[in-house]
Amino acid sequence: MDVLILERDKLIRDQILVGLQNFPEFAVDLGEGFGGLNMTKQKDYHCVVIGTNLQDDNGMELVETFCQHEHESDLVLVTTTRRAKSHQSLRARYDVFSILYAPLDPREFFRLVARLRRRGQPAA
Known about the structure:
Elements: E1 2-6, H1 10-21, E2 27-31, H2 33-37, H3 39-42, E3 47-51, H4 58-68, E4 74-80, H5 84-88, H6 90-93, E5 96-102, H7 106-120
Parallel strand pairs: 1-2, 1-3, 3-4, 4-5
């Protein structure tokens, strides 16, 4: 299962990376900004993780650009709890698979991993 992480906060990015690397079925690529988003044109990712923060709206621009193109990837947003309410309205508009809140809660993160693993299993 190929995952692309587009998160500017190095601590959060590394937590997600290390968490996913514990599972052999995940192959993780890291990117940043629109250059990282262009990686989705070269490879089909099962999941794209995009960080959105309060300092700028670059993350939301990435989300909008990502969603404008045809894609089969699950979209996971990473945001602060302050933005939680505003991001809930985005769930349906952008077909968001899940939202993680920083600082990351290990239980929520591994629930997401379990959902991704179930989704990635071939149908019997």
